[in-house]
Specification:
This protein is of the alpha+beta class. The protein folds into two domains: 67 residues, Winged helix-like DNA-binding domain superfamily/Winged helix DNA-binding domain (Arc Repressor Mutant, subunit A, Orthogonal Bundle); 80 residues, Winged helix-like DNA-binding domain superfamily/Winged helix DNA-binding domain (Arc Repressor Mutant, subunit A), CATH 1.10.10.10. The protein has nine helices and six strands; from the N terminus they run αβααββααβααββαα. The protein has a three-stranded antiparallel sheet with strand order 1-3-2. A three-stranded antiparallel sheet has the order 4-6-5. The radius of gyration is 21 Å and the shape is elongated.
Length: 180
């Protein structure tokens, strides 16, 4: 592998881990280089971002590295988050929102069990757009957060109350079986 390819792989790893970040040891193991050589490449990549005036930066916190947006662009990201009528929802966010709307109150673990994938990003997006909110804590071990929809959710979808949601397909099929 050439030097630029290794930098590209590290960049991809940082993107893939998202908010979690990744530590030097993990990166070095994955790209099969010594930690010192890996750190040199990471530092070079960090300098590339600064020198090229990119829209994101690479930061180090504790022993981990992470890609983040630039603080000086924060006002634009806030506009994106707080204008739900102008921003579309991803498939993951729509799936998560549907689960919350029909199953509320519901925990993140329950959402992830239904979806079969992690839902941290979708939950953050939906909370940022104020379509969902924390509505309490479940009375179980760990007291996980319970999520539910908001008034903004109702407004966004033109509903007066949650009872106006269309029936689930499974419920329609069950009703048909009963009437036959």
């Amino acid at each position: 592998m050439d030097y630029n390819q290794v930098k590209s792989i590290i960049e991809g790893l940082l993107f893939a881990v998202g908010d979690e970040g990744i530590d030097l040891k993990q990166i070095a193991e994955i790209i099969e280089l010594e930690q010192e050589a890996t750190l040199d490449i990471i530092n070079d990549l960090m300098n590339d971002y600064k020198r090229e005036t990119r829209g994101f930066q690479m930061i180090q916190y504790a022993d981990s590295f992470q890609l983040t947006t630039l603080p000086e662009h924060a006002e634009y990201f806030e506009k994106l988050v707080y204008l739900p009528s102008r921003a579309t929802l991803s498939q993951a966010s729509l799936e998560t929102l549907g689960i919350i709307a029909y199953k509320q109150p519901i925990t993140k673990a329950e959402i992830e069990e239904l979806r079969g994938v992690q839902s941290d990003s979708a939950i953050r997006t939906l909370a940022g757009k104020e379509l969902i909110k924390e509505i309490g804590r479940k009375e179980t071990i760990g007291r996980p957060i319970l999520y539910g929809t908001t008034k903004d959710f109702l407004d966004y979808f033109g509903l007066e109350n949650i009872g106006q949601l269309p029936p689930l397909i499974e419920q329609l099929e069950l009703d048909e079986e009963i009437t036959i």
